[in-house]
Amino acid sequence: MARTVLCARLKKELPGLDFQLIPGEVGKRVFDNISKEAWSEWQKKQTMLINEKKLSLMNLEDRKFLEAEMVKYLFEGQEVDIEGYTPPAP
């Protein structure tokens, strides 16, 4: 049976991630509190951020920036600010 989490981003019980995708404390927090659906949404935003800002995952500063943006998006309900991108109207 799939595990469910009370998703911190989407504010409802949803299927959780199958395993911890990120090492460390932040990774555990994501695993315990973020649904597959919210993670998938974040991954799309992350890809846009990487492309927009020409980030390199080999660069520690870029990884720190992405982690900070991820925490703001997943846990603080903030939207990711991507220059030149307007989210579709609901």
UniProtKB/TrEMBL annotation:
Keywords: Iron. The keyword Iron applies. InterPro entries: Fe_traffick_prot_YggX (IPR007457), Fe_traffick_prot_YggX_sf (IPR036766). It holds the Pfam family Iron_traffic. Could be a mediator in iron transactions between iron acquisition and iron-requiring processes, such as synthesis and/or repair of Fe-S clusters in biosynthetic enzymes. PANTHER family: FE(2+)-TRAFFICKING PROTEIN-RELATED. Belongs to the Fe(2+)-trafficking protein family. This is Probable Fe(2+)-trafficking protein.
